[in-house]
Amino acid sequence: EQSYMESVVTFLQDVVPQAYSGTPPAEEKEKIIWVRFENADLNDTSRNMEFHEIHSTGNEPPLLLMIGYSDGMQVWSIPISGEAQELFSDRHGPVRAARILPAPQISAQKCDNFSEKRPLLGVCKSIGSSGTSPPYCCVDLYSLRTGEMVKSIQFKTPIYDLHCNKR
Asked: Where is the BCAS3 WD40 domain (predicted)?
């Protein structure tokens, strides 16, 4: 049986263009620009029952794999079994950065306006949802539960990376 990383490597070999392996491509495949692995509360099956139903093979939460292409990105859930499942795909231009937003710490004074939409994915694309901001100056928040964009945040300067925490 393959180890966790061997399963991920096998998955990537299926996705990565054949040009990297030195063999002539039978068909044109997409070019991968960046890859990121994430461990987020999204894949904590004790907090997210939908993922528990999808990945009920064990107690280990699945690894999240984000792949950035020249025209968009994908988010994959890879459980211990190695059977990857696509969680999100966006093909509307290059993506500079993306992160799964952790659920916030809730207190008596604060409420979570997005609790029904979580888990959320923050995406910095070349052109934001408004289409009027300069390149990479907008972060769109997508619900991985529904697939819809729930908020767009505009910045005055370009975004180079996204960082987030429970606060």
From this structure: 30-167
List strand residue ranges (DSSP E) for 110-159, in order: 120-125, 138-143, 149-154
Strands 63-69 and 72-78: antiparallel
SS3 11: helix
Q: Provide the whole-model pTM.
A: 0.69
If pLDDT is split at 50, 70 and 90, which confidence band does 45 have?
very low
Q: Where are the domains of the chain?
A: 31-154
pLDDT digits (tens, 9 = 90+) for 57-96: 555 667 889 999 888 899 998 877 778 888 899 888 888 9
Cβ atoms of residues 119 and 145 within 8 Å: yes
Structure tokens at 36: 């990121």
- Residue 21 CA to residue 15 CA, distance in Å, equals 12
Distances (CA, A) of 143 to 42, 73, 98: 11, 15, 13
